[in-house]
Amino acid sequence: MSSVKKQLIVFDFDWSMADQDTDRWIFEVLAPDLRRKMKTLKDEVQWTDLVAQSLREANKRGVKREEIQNALRIMPFHPAMARGVDKLKTQDDRTTFLCLSNSNSVFISTILEDKMLTHIFSEIITNPADWEGELLKLRRRIDPAGPQHSCEVGCSPNMCKGEELEAFLSRNGQEYDRIVYVGDGSNDFCPILRMREQDLVLCRSHRGLSSRIAKEGAAKGLKPKIQYWAGAWEVEEIFATL
Ligand SMILES: [Mg+2]
Ligand SMILES: [Zn+2]
């Protein structure tokens, strides 16, 4: 596809770039009872708030910053994914990478630093987090006290990835010949509804996004081409053809 002069690769993070879910993983490693509690409460408490609350509980019982950082560094991350994105980013200047994630800024940057991938993303749009001593303070991307997003596709109150993608495109004023979206979750459905026929979705098989595409894609007029993948080595293979 040599006609593509500028392309944007949009990456979800959990189960897309990384081979696990950051929010769940750190509690599975450091406090499995809190992981169980999150599973019990997830339909009652908004997810970002629930992770923030669980981080406070972990901090109260003495879980250290270093332990959280180490848990993130040992989280599964496929070497083929690291190779694939690095090659596409560094081989020429056609490709811009954007991260759209429901995780948080500290989890993502800790992992990217460990994998020597901090040069990949032009922008990381996610929930903001900061260390306050040993406590990781996490907030929603959209402050619950301020104006809320107007999405009707079913995005969580903390962030609408579709609106974030559109805002990124208009603030960059850049025309992309092709947008490629790599995602797995049901909240990746909203942004792909806003993509065009010449765009491409790399959808991880057997997860929330693939079921939403199957159930709602045709009725909602989904336009981009969909290509399914299961392992990161397949994304590396596809990236080599872009
Ligand atoms: Mg995901
Ligand atoms: Zn949305």
UniProtKB/TrEMBL annotation:
Cofactor needs: Mg(2+)
Tagged with keyword Metal-binding: yes
Active-site residues (renumbered): D12 (nucleophile), D14 (proton donor)
Positions of Mg(2+) binding: D12, D14, D184
Protein keywords: Hydrolase, Magnesium, Metal-binding
Keyword Repeat annotated: no
UniProt-recorded name of the protein: Phosphatase phospho-type
Organism: Coprinellus micaceus
